[in-house]
Amino acid sequence: MTGRPGAVVLAAGAGSRLRSVAPVKPLVPVAGRPLLLRVIDALRAAGVGRVTVVVGHAAAEVAAVVAQVPDTLTVENPAWGRAPNGVSVLAARVHIREGTLLVMGDHLVSPQLLQRLVAQGPVRDGVVLAVDRRLGHPAVDEADVTRVRTREERIVDLGKDLRIYDAHDTGAFVVSPALVAALEQLDSPSLSDGVRRLARAGRALARDIGDAFWLDVDDPRALALAERHLARA
Question: What is the pTM of this model?
Answer without folding.
Answer: 0.96
